[in-house]
Amino acid sequence: xxxxxxxxxxxxxxxxxxxxxxxxxxxxxxxxxxxxxxxxxxxxxxxxxxxxxxxxxxxxxxxxxxxxxxxxxxxxxxxxxxxxxxxxxxxxxxxxxxxxxxxxxxxxxxxxxxxxxxxxxxxxxxxxxxxxxxxxxxxxxxxxxxxxxxxxxxxxxxxxxxxxxxxxxxxxxxxxxxxxxxxxxxxxxxxxxxxxxxxxxxxxxxxxxxxxxxxxxxxxxxxxxxxxxxxxxxxxxxxxxxxxxxxxxxxxxxxxxxxxxxxxxxxxxxxxxxxxxxxxxxxxxxxxxxxxxxxxxxxxxxxxxxxxxxxxxxxxxxxxxxxxxxxxxxxxxxxxxxxxxxxxxxxxxxxxxxxxxxxxxxxxxxxxxxxxxxxxxxxxxxxxxxxxxxxxxxxxxxxxxxxxxxxxxxxxxxxxxxxxxxxxxxxxxxxxxxxxxxxxxxxxxxxxxxxxxxxxxxxxxxxxxxxxxxxxxxxxxxxxxxxxxxxxxxxxxxxxxxxxxxxxxxxxxxxxxxxxxxxxxxxxxxxxxxxxxx
Length: 534
Ligand code: AMP
Known about the structure:
Layout: H1 22-27, E1 32-35, E2 39-42, H2 43-59, E3 67-71, H3 76-87, E4 91-94, H4 101-111, E5 115-119, H5 123-129, E6 138-142, H6 148-153, E7 169-175, E8 183-188, H7 189-204, E9 217-218, H8 232-239, E10 242-245, H9 251-261, E11 265-268, H10 270-278, E12 291-294, H11 301-309, E13 313-319, E14 326-329, H12 337-340, E15 345-346, E16 351-355, E17 370-375, H13 387-393, E18 399-407, E19 413-418, E20 423-425, E21 428-430, H14 432-440, E22 445-455, E23 459-468, H15 474-490, E24 502-505, H16 519-533
Parallel strand pairs: 1-10, 3-4, 3-5, 4-7, 5-6, 9-10, 11-12, 12-13, 23-24
Antiparallel strand pairs: 1-2, 7-8, 13-14, 14-15, 16-17, 17-18, 18-19, 20-21, 22-23
Bound molecules: adenosine monophosphate.
């Protein structure tokens, strides 16, 4: 029964991406969006360009229900696509340009875009795979000074973005996080709207300068193809912030932009921050106003110490491709390094549990681990065209993250492992993240990963795979690391089974397409190497 019958002309605002622009297009018209070293737009210009892009796409045959792929670096053009494409009712397919050509071809054939906007640097790749396209796809080459501007400039800025069902898909991308072929994940307008509000409330409701707020100057350091650049570009645009897009990541330009544009808020995986901190110009730039959220991987203690010594305010956050991604964030107002590195508190509307295999909650005692399962209004409903994997994802009515962790008495989560990465030795579960954290603080270790090696007697034994810092003596480093781990065993913080039998030094640790430690590759390559040697 309708409680109050709606008037004939009542407007029932559906939750659509276009609504994120309403406020900033009114009150932030003069605010700037900077892209690379030489493009500056006001929000007024940005809004006009969104209209132009929509009209241009419309002339190219794009309309509601069509799909448009994008292959670009982090630029103002990409941000325009974040809005124009879904606002037309089409689906934005953010193509991961760091996958192998074969995987990119797979994601294109699976996602079936009608048109792809391609930065000129990826045109050789398109030329290589185009013969494998399973349908006609219009390719629009763009780049700095070529293509895009000519393509959109003739179009008018007025486009009447329609209202439609808020549950209509807005975005599509592919995750390679698990085994097998990349899996397609899609989000609706409603989910992205609620996620944006969740990000603003979850990262913004802190006193003073902590967190993400209207005074910030925002620069993503997460590729925009990786879970919508974690959703912050939508949040920053809704808030009307000054935004800086660094293009292709190069540490010298990133540092230059932080200094010249006064960047105060960024987010990235640990690898990208390490790359910036390793650059010689780093010591010349004042980083004391820079707040960085580390997500996508645990925040290694060594990186935290290094960044904080340079004045950077670093905090951890957690989520995954299938969760849009925001799930938790560390207490952003805390200056205690231990608390800043915690996986953190669930965001608003996030119902997070840590459960046993039969879905019973583990006690919140900061020790008992289980799988993290979640519900929230912005979780992927399944995988595109893969019912079996979708059912497994949602088994028992909760989304299964595949992550292992525990909850503290105060409700803060700690991820200790991936389910498939946990090391079980002598009947004990060893947290690979904890081992990595301890080893990462040892002098001479540049980067380190802990993996399990099958062992007939113990089930598995932990192995450390590490990259040495320059000019380090492997024998000395090995001795230090083992002593350090042993000291944690002696203090009762670690089980005695956690002391690795083997430490392997490699030139570089394998990384995934988004710069995370690739333990799958390590297990395959390094363990097969170990097995041959032993
Ligand atoms: P992706 O879908 O590629 O973004 O990967 C998501 C996965 O990254 C999660 O399921 C976790 O295993 C891992 N991850 C993300 N954030 C964190 C964090 N703060 N601590 C530990 N692992 C994390």
